[in-house]
Q: What sequence folds into this?
């Protein structure tokens, strides 16, 4: 099937064309699912986020002005959807002083001996508490500043920095241990 | 504040790993959502089906049955006695065009002397007070070219009906009231036992 341009996809979706709706989903579901897997604690939660995100995309397609790439616009909607999911969690940004990352969480023979591919790194990320995971994703991978993260999550800049520090410490120790093993 | 180098390399590792992924989904399928997601999205974004659906047809049929049953019940209901219900006020043109009837107008005069036996809708004392101050005769003084109409009087020929339906209903009640019918003549006692003519001689002292 011929790849449709972003403009054609937008026009088709706005007209309610089922073929264009399906094509848009096929084109962007995998990259958006990869983004959401980083924010979710597991696959099922990421699928819930993806479903809500695409419903928003179809609903708000009229607001897309074509100034940037369609993929970037959809990605912003997906990240916002993921953050609103995380904010609904009761233990989001809880104090994790009792968080012990190396306690019965990994089987070293399988996880640490494997290559550092995306799937493995994803497993490490998903072990983080939601607050650590969200701040690390937004800062280290998506390139947001602490001010933007604080605004999006409704937290202080200091909280954003401390959550990032703890997330990095945890990931560094895991990676160090994996290299030693 | 600048991030330490060790953290920078950590961030770079995650960023490059997730951003340099190939366009095609992984063979293991870890980055492919299940088909259930698209099915759920489809159900949410599809516009509602046009036309009649089974639930809407059932709803309309049920409403029609209820309406028919209600109509049947209302039409087959037996008429209640007239004493239990208020007399219907009919906007008949004959009433408006009817010439003033002596008997009908004279009814209020009868009510002044007759006892109020029933008609709970309008208490009798009020009626008495209302009609006792009104002239019983429909004839108007000759000097008046446009006769004044009392509140309870019927409309004159050629004039519009009074808008106050309460007063007209009271008039209807009064006309149909049993105590408003003409009284029966008293039994003629004098015919059976006629009094002897009075003679002056028998009265005067001799």
A:
């Amino acid at each position: 099937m011929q790849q449709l341009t972003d403009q054609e996809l937008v026009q088709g979706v706005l007209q309610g064309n089922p073929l264009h709706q399906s094509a848009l989903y096929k084109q962007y579901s995998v990259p958006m699912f990869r983004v959401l897997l980083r924010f979710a604690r597991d696959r099922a939660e990421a699928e819930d986020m993806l479903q809500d995100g695409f419903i928003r995309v179809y609903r708000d397609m009229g607001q897309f002005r074509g100034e940037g790439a369609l993929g970037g616009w959809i990605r912003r909607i997906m990240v916002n959807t993921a953050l609103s999911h995380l904010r609904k969690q009761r233990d989001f940004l809880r104090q994790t002083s009792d968080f012990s990352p190396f306690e019965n969480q990994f089987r070293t023979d399988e996880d640490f001996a494997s290559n550092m591919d995306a799937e493995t790194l994803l497993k490490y990320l998903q072990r983080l508490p939601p607050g650590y995971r969200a701040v690390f994703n937004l800062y280290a991978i998506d390139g947001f500043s602490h001010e933007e993260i604080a605004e999006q999550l409704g937290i202080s800049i200091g909280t954003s920095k401390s959550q990032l520090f703890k997330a990095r410490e945890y990931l560094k120790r895991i990676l160090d241990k994996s290299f030693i093993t | 504040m600048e991030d330490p180098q060790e953290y920078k390399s950590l961030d770079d590792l995650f960023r490059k790993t997730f951003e340099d992924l190939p366009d095609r989904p992984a063979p293991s399928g870890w980055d492919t959502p299940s088909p259930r997601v698209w099915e759920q999205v489809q159900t949410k974004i599809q516009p509602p089906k046009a036309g009649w659906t089974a639930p809407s047809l059932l709803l309309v049929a049920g409403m029609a049955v209820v309406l028919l049953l209600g109509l049947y019940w209302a039409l087959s209901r037996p008429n209640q006695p007239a004493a239990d219900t208020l007399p219907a006020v009919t906007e008949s043109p004959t009433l408006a065009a009817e010439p003033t009837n002596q008997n009908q107008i004279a009814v209020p005069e009868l009510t002044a002397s007759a006892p109020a036996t029933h008609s709970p809708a309008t208490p009798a004392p009020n009626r008495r007070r209302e009609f006792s101050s009104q002239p019983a005769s429909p004839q108007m003084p000759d000097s008046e070219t446009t006769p004044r109409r009392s509140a309870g009087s019927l409309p004159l020929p050629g004039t519009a009906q009074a808008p106050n339906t309460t007063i007209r209903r009271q008039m209807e009640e009064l006309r149909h009231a049993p105590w408003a019918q003409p009284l029966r003549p008293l039994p003629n006692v004098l015919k059976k036992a006629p009094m002897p003519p009075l003679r002056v001689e028998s009265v005067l002292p001799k």
Remarks:
- The interface with chain B takes residues 16, 18, 21-22, 25, 29-31, 33-34, 37-38, 46-47, 50-51, 54-55, 58-59, 116-119, 121-122, 125, 136, 139-141, 168, 171-172, 175 of chain A (CB under 8 Å).
- The longest helix of chain A spans residues 157-180.
- Confidence is low (pLDDT under 50) at residues 102-114 of chain A.
